[in-house]
């Protein structure tokens, strides 16, 4: 996970707000064709979620990077104006190292995968140069080990 210092979702309207305005309130932000593209994207996000769940359950981790990347790419296709330059830069910098990357929510932090420690080191150095901190989560299998 990477956290951008000084980057927040409040720099621009969060994507969820933009989608709600377009679809739920009937605002005229999008044409009929545009609304359909948002609905199609929502269906694809649901499919990506299902595929991620399946990959995790099967322990088929090879598919995860492309699913994470597609999630963000789809967001860019549908809501490009809702993504700040700094938030987009954080994802692009991570991807330049070979890592996958997507937002964890509405911006300000990303999550992704890397192949090995060499790539992780490159990721840390690249993002640190832009005041972006990288955190490597430690996954524990036993709850009592979580507090060590």
UniProtKB/TrEMBL annotation:
Domain (GHMP kinase C-terminal): residue spans on this chain: 52-118
Family matches, as SUPFAM superfamilies: GHMP Kinase, C-terminal domain (SSF55060)
Name of the protein described by the UniProt record: GHMP kinase C-terminal domain-containing protein
Gene Ontology molecular function terms on file: glucuronokinase activity
Organism: bioreactor metagenome
Classification via Pfam families: GHMP_kinases_C
């Amino acid at each position: 996970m990477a956290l951008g210092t000084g980057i927040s979702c409040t720099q621009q309207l969060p994507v969820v707000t933009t989608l709600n305005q377009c679809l739920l309130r009937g605002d005229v932000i999008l044409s009929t064709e545009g609304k359909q593209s948002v609905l199609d994207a929502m269906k694809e996000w649901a499919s990506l979620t299902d595929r991620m769940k399946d990959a995790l359950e099967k322990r088929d981790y090879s598919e995860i990077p492309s699913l994470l990347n597609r999630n963000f790419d789809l967001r860019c296709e549908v809501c490009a104006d809702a993504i700040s330059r700094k938030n987009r830069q954080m994802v692009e910098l991570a991807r330049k190292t070979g890592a996958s990357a997507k937002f964890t929510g509405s911006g300000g932090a990303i999550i992704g995968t890397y192949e090995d420690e060499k790539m992780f080191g490159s990721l840390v150095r690249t993002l640190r140069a832009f005041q972006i901190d990288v955190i490597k989560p430690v996954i524990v299998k036993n709850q009592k080990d979580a507090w060590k």
